[in-house]
Amino acid sequence: MKKILAGLFMTGAIAFASAQTISFDKTTFDYGNIKAGSDGHRFFTVKNTGDKPLILSEVKPSCGCTQPEWSKDPILPGKTAQIKVGYNTGIKGPFNKLIEVYSNDPQNNRSVLYIKGNVEDLNGEVAAQQANLTVAPVAQAKAQPATAAKRSAKKAVAAQKIEAAK
Fold first, then answer.
1. Residue 129 contacts by C-beta under 8 Å, 6 or more apart in sequence?
2. What pLDDT, on a 0 to 100 scale, did the predictor assign at position 140?
3. 70-109 burial by CB neighbour count: b if 16+ within 10 A, else e?
4. Structurally, how many domains does the chain consist of?
5. 118 with 161, same domain?
6. Who wins on pLDDT, 152 or 82?
7. How far is the CA of 77 from the CAs of 8, 80, 81, 122, 146, in angstroms?
């Protein structure tokens, strides 16, 4: 019985040791001070240090101001791939964001990458905006006031109809 258990343990240990393993060239990218509207794209290099194909199943940013891109193709043993991270540099002020990377690495199926920096006004002044605020994309921000104006106009028309009915 002891020999059977020892054999099962060794088989499991060998199978576990010969798995895919994820590693990164860095886990934090510091943008430093960057100008508003400048290129916010940066790259993280992912390496498969195991001996089976590594698959990045999902790369999930902490908010909509950060957009990741990655290949869904398996990363072969010893090979690398890149995760492209784009930060919206139209949002002025300091930022500190995280990106979760999910993979089939049995020991580390969730890795966390960080980006940080400070977006300055075009004239070099630092904006006083808080980094933790979630800001709607520009297209939505412009569309919302028009929607609110339409609602106000509809309410005014409804109020006029009620007044006329009296």
1. 91, 92, 93
2. 39
3. beeebbebeeebebebbbbbebbbbbebbbebebbbeeee
4. 2
5. no
6. 82
7. 26, 9, 11, 44, 53
